[in-house]
TrEMBL record:
This is Methylsterol monooxygenase 1. It comes from the Eukaryota. The chain crosses the membrane at residues 60-79, 100-120, 192-217. Keywords: Membrane, Transmembrane, Transmembrane helix. One of its GO terms (molecular function) is oxidoreductase activity. Residues 144-274 form the Fatty acid hydroxylase domain. It is found in: Membrane. GO terms for biological process: lipid biosynthetic process. InterPro entries: Fatty_acid_hydroxylase, Sterol_Desaturase_Related. GO terms for cellular component: membrane. It holds the Pfam family FA_hydroxylase.
């Protein structure tokens, strides 16, 4: 009975979104996107699309999403939004990070990306435009992938902080006490494999079109670069996501080394109490701000 109720609720929600979608104006970018997608299918093999397409999506998304945080360091006005203002970015750290990223991207992640085609073939995942899911289905699938990845990340990340393991693997990622966007994937190769596994679990569960692979890549990179940015910028649209952790949450993890282990959401840390030091830190900050306001008055 409970299963039937859940199915009915999901069906009702799907129909409601479809009904709302019917009233929305046509997307002017849909036809050009359709033409470009069909051109890609006509001129490239599935192996080329799955392999080189995935690599291009990853590299272009990663470094383009890093641009705002990189530019912020040169804008004095943005410094008031930097979380750890006493630890500015340096060229030396950024160059070291960039070199490690290139190694990880092309010697660790690229071999994994080369398996994308065989994954899509094994599970008979379509590439055709007609099979592409609607925007709201794709959005829901990405959210589902984020929930799964967040659970994996919390428990494995917490394990990597164990005193017997930390110095061998995860310590590399914590070389930067004050993180910056490009540092999101700066990690030991083993960590890239261990925590990166969580990214693929959601794909196995939800993937019904190759577009989800790319959409989920972009969503995941958007999240991880944001929480590593070092800046808590107002009007950040990601803050509209329910239970979203954000930059302050993860920045404290780099500053404190203990607690706040989840990647995207706050619920696992809240359930297991591993956000207690962060909550205490926020309370202390609030008290200090109140004292400063009273002195100013």
């Amino acid at each position: 009975m409970a299963m039937n109720d859940s199915v009915n609720i999901l069906n009702s929600a799907y129909l409601a979104v479809e009904y709302i979608d019917s009233f929305l104006p046509d997307n002017p970018l849909q036809q050009p996107f359709k033409n470009a997608w069909n051109y890609m299918l006509d001129n490239y093999t599935k192996f080329q699309i799955a392999t080189w397409g995935s690599l291009i999506v990853h590299e272009a998304s990663y470094f383009l999403l890093c641009v705002p945080g990189f530019v912020f360091q040169f804008i004095p006005y943005m410094q008031k939004y930097k979380i750890q203002q006493d630890k500015p970015e340096t060229w030396e750290k950024q160059w070291k990070c960039f070199k490690t990223l290139l190694f990880n991207h092309f010697f660790i992640q690229l071999p994994l990306i080369c398996g994308t085609y065989y994954f899509t073939e094994y599970f008979n995942i379509p590439y055709e435009w007609e099979e592409m899911p609607r925007w709201y289905v794709l959005l829901a699938q990405c959210f589902g992938c984020a929930v799964i990845e967040d659970a994996w990340h919390y428990f494995l990340h917490r394990l990597l902080h164990h005193k017997r393991i930390y110095k061998y693997i995860h310590k590399v990622h914590h070389e930067f006490v004050s993180p910056f966007g490009m540092q999101a994937e700066y990690a030991h190769p083993l960590e890239t494999l261990i925590l990166g596994t969580g990214f693929f679990i959601g794909i196995v569960v939800f993937c019904n079109h190759v577009i989800l692979l790319w959409a989920w890549v972009i969503c995941r990179l958007m999240e991880t670069i944001d929480v590593h940015s070092g800046y808590d910028v107002p009007l950040n649209p990601l803050h509209l996501v329910p239970f979203y952790a954000g930059a302050r949450f993860h920045d404290f993890h780099h500053m404190n080394f203990i607690g706040n282990y989840a990647s995207t959401f706050t619920w696992w840390d809240r359930i297991f109490g591993t956000d207690s030091q962060f909550i205490a830190y926020k309370e202390k900050e609030k008290k200090q701000q109140l004292i400063m306001k009273k002195k100013a008055n």
